[in-house]
Amino acid sequence: MSRLRCAFALLGVLGLSSAAARADDLEKVEKEIVGKWEQRKSLSAKLTMKMNMEVKGQRMRSEGAGTYEMLRRGSKVLVRQELNAQMLLNANGQEMKINQASLVIGDGEFDYTINETLGNKQVFKGRPKKSLEFEPTQMFKYMREQSELKLLPEEKLEGEDVYVVETRPKKPTPNAPIARSLYYFSKETGAPLRMVSKNDKDEDVQIMQFSALEFDARIDPDRFKFEAPEGVKVIDQTSAP
Q1: Phi (first) and psi of residue 141, to 5 degrees
Q2: Residue 241 resides in a domain
């Protein structure tokens, strides 16, 4: 074998070894994050959200703030997320400001979502997945089902050491509003601290961030009980794929 062919063969082996090492590192980091998170009995935090997205010629911008709570009850993970946001919609040169409010409750059996826009309320009942979007055990499960994962170099986020995991869709769609996402997990607690979605121009289209995290404080379990607003029909989506 010539020296050139040997060199290419060696590079191939090194490349495969490097890829395998990165995969092993990601699996190790995932186990560490999930292991630390599952030691937490509860979490309360502030939540902020920003979005700047263009879909089919319509520009949508919004900013919102709210709270996020998590409580373990035996084998169940209960979740409550409240968010108030103002959206600015620009379509065909016309702008419209819309105030939105949402409440998501995951009671360990089902997810319930109450959306209120322009005074109209909609209520949805679904299988538990969406409300656990920020629960690392479920996050990694869902991400692996939908995306290719990559462990990026560690960073600091507001002075805290974080792991950074990148996801890209397994089946990318041309001109999709989101091309990749970045998830920032605390090395100390395993908690997700920031989620950033980017378009194919690598511009930020959505940012969600937690702050003022408080672990293992007492939270009233009644916070995670769902009650439908009076006179509003609950749309059952539990049979949806």
Answers
A1: -60, -45
A2: no
